[in-house]
Write a structure and sequence with these properties.
Largest sheet: 8 strands, mixed
Shape: elongated
Order of helices and strands: EHHEEHHHHEHEHEEEHEEEHEHEHEE
Helix content: 25-40%
Structural class: alpha/beta
Radius of gyration: 25 Å
CATH superfamily of the largest domain: Gcn5-related N-acetyltransferase (GNAT)
Distance between the termini: 32 Å
Length: about 375
């Protein structure tokens, strides 16, 4: 255990009003304008995720600098440049992609926009990814202080998982206690109580709190908002299309649709393909994408449709491999441009297939139908 101490002092004003205010309650100015605490903490036993928490003015930032150095918050960030252009020049594309997806910033459109144009939650994730690329171990101040609390939990889950996956050391400095379950830190220093809590021996992911999301059948009016986060065409499929929205309380945070690409044959089930799955970037990290696909596919399957899915996303392919509800039909690789209905379904009008794209085709063959989306991770 190492001992750390923090002393915060504010200069006392000698103005008439300040003196009158102090005298009105017989205030001991020297004591009330000084905040001091000591804490003993173990920073030598291996760990990946730490949390320094407490109210504003409790000494969190000062303590972090005392433990990890005066420059522990320093990072080179240019808010006018796209996040993917700011990774080390010696990194290849796959390393950049892994860092961004690992922190939960999975939508490609977010990678190529200037950081200043991203939402608060997206900026937090981008800065975390860049900081981890620049420093083996890093401390992030004001963690989730300016985002919605559900977003804060999703961000904390992504940060904790990524730090443990990469073997790095991350310390979040926060004023909110609601991130503890989701960040799942190895240790906590509570500046309000001057208390150190060792959590290294706890099992990971044992959360009590659950977040519940609702699926509702909708029209396509919300697609223009979600399309900017999708990696394919902004044009919705034509023909028979069914739309679903994922909601947290009354806020839509996800979009999903099913479209018919093949002629309807009398006596056979109508084939409907899952596509245009989007989870708002602020909520990525909770595993909502695959759960949205499966829950809505179950709804479509119960309605009598032959549900299929075709996509090129590697993370989605890995998730489908783990699911008992999907059967792999084929894997194809397109290396040249083409035309036709399938091309238009992937790109909109005016172009062909994307170059060197590997696609996976699945059939929904449920063995354990999902009942909804309620999760603790």
């Amino acid at each position: 255990m190492q001992d750390y101490s923090v002393t915060l002092t504010s200069p006392a004003s000698e103005s008439f009003r300040c003196q009158m205010a102090a005298n009105s309650v017989d205030l001991d100015v020297s004591k009330k304008l000084t905040h001091q605490f000591r804490v003993s903490a173990d920073m030598k036993t291996p760990w990946n995720v730490g949390l320094i928490v407490g109210a504003s003015g409790s000494g969190k930032t000062t303590l972090a600098r005392a433990i990890f150095g005066a420059d522990c918050f320093d990072v080179d960030i240019d808010y006018d440049r796209p996040v993917i252009d700011q990774f080390p020049t010696e990194w290849n594309y796959e390393q950049c992609q892994s860092a961004l997806c690992g922190i939960g910033l999975t939508q490609v459109p977010c990678w190529i926009r200037p950081i200043r144009t991203l939402s608060n939650g997206q900026q937090h994730r981008a800065i975390a990814a860049l900081t981890m690329a620049q420093r083996a171990n890093f401390v992030v101040d004001e963690w989730t202080s300016v985002v919605d609390r559900t977003v804060a939990k999703a961000m904390s889950l992504s940060l904790g998982k990524h730090a443990r996956h990469t073997g790095g050391q991350v310390v979040a400095v926060a004023c909110h206690y609601d991130v503890i379950e989701w960040l799942d830190p190895d240790w906590i220093i509570d500046c309000n109580k001057s208390e150190y809590i060792n959590r290294r021996s706890l099992r990971r992911g044992q959360r009590i709190e659950k977040l519940t999301f609702d699926i509702r059948q909708i029209d396509g009016k919300s697609w223009p908002y979600f399309s900017k986060y999708h990696y394919l065409s902004e044009v919705l499929p034509g023909g028979i299309v069914k739309f679903f929205g994922l909601f947290h309380n009354d806020e839509q945070i996800g979009f999903q649709c099913f479209a018919n690409y093949k002629p309807i044959i009398k006596g056979q089930k109508t084939m409907m393909h899952s596509n245009r799955t989007v989870i708002h970037p602020d909520y990525v990290g909770l595993g909502l994408g695959i759960r949205l696909i499966e829950a809505t596919s179950a709804i479509m399957h119960a309605a009598g449709y032959d549900v299929r899915a075709k996509f090129s996303s590697i993370p989605v392919a890995k998730a489908f491999e783990k699911s008992p509800n999907w059967m792999l039909i084929s894997v194809q690789r397109f290396t040249s441009t083409g035309s036709g209905n399938m091309a238009r379904g992937n790109r909109g009008t005016g172009g062909g297939f994307r170059q060197a794209v590997k696609t996976y085709s699945y059939k929904f063959a449920p063995k354990c139908l999902p009942a909804g989306i309620s999760l603790a991770a």
